[in-house]
Amino acid sequence: MFVQAFLEAQRLFPPGSKTCLEFGVGKGGSYVWQVNQIVKNFKDTTLIGFDSWCGLPDETPGVWCPGRHIRGNFAHPKSIVLDELTKIGVKNDPRFMLVDGFFDKSLTKEVQQSISNLIFVNIDVDIHSSSILALDFIKPLLKENVILYWDDWKDPIDKYDGKWGEHLAWEQWSQKNPEVKTETIVIGGSNERYMRVL
Fold first, then answer.
1. 91-108: per-residue pLDDT in tens?
2. What's the pLDDT score for residue 79?
3. How does strand 193-197 pair with strand 147-150?
4. Of the candidates 30, 37, 66, 105, which lies 20 to 30 Å from 59 by C-alpha distance?
5. DSSP string, the chain
6. How many whole angstroms separate alpha carbon 67 and alpha carbon 150?
7. What share of the chain is helix, strand, coil (3-state, %, to 5)?
8. Beta-carbon neighbour count of residue 125 at 10 Å?
């Protein structure tokens, strides 16, 4: 479904300078895949990835999270991603950027203002606190047809009936920002999904 979402975003926007964002790069699987696509098929696209490389930060106090979402989990060194990029012949290409640090420090106005023509956002941050920060960061950049992909939307393996993580963040953020209208396009078997801004 991730592939479908990325290609849908590219289809919805005409050729020209475009930007994709990835929140939560990890080992770089989806990031490197996008780089490959951009090099081969979408040469006018820029990709910016955001990751602390230190694992997850603390969850919002009072918000439930599964044990695998504890602070520090999913820590992967940035060198893994850089090595994968080198393997595919990508090095020092200005179209591809990685922004280091936890989002409360790395999602700056300076970075935000450097982004033009956003078309696709991959939100793979697992937890509520990071989701809210990512959404606040992209709000001024959102426009009609931007695709938002959610990788960890209340994974059904977690037997918890309450609201938590990415889906709670989206519900709360949407209530505070009712001017941002979206439609959900596809929902996958693990609740991953993507939506289009209206």
1. 999 999 999 999 999 999
2. 98
3. antiparallel
4. 30
5. -HHHHHHHHHHHS-SS-EEEEEE--TT-HHHHHHHHHHHHT-TTEEEEEEE-SS---PPPTT----GGGSTTTT---HHHHHHHHHHTT--S-TTEEEEES-HHHHS-HHHHHT--SEEEEEE---SHHHHHHHHHHHGGG--TT-EEEES-SS-TTS---S--HHHHHHHHHHHH-TT--EEEEEE-TTS-EEEEE-
6. 20
7. 35, 20, 45
8. 28
**pLDDT, tens digit, for every residue of 53-76?**
999 999 999 998 888 888 988 899
* CB-CB contact of 73 with 55 (8 Å): yes
Tell me which CATH code domain 2-197 carries: 3.40.50.150
What per-residue confidence (pLDDT) applies to 158?
76
Task: Read off the pTM.
Answer: 0.95
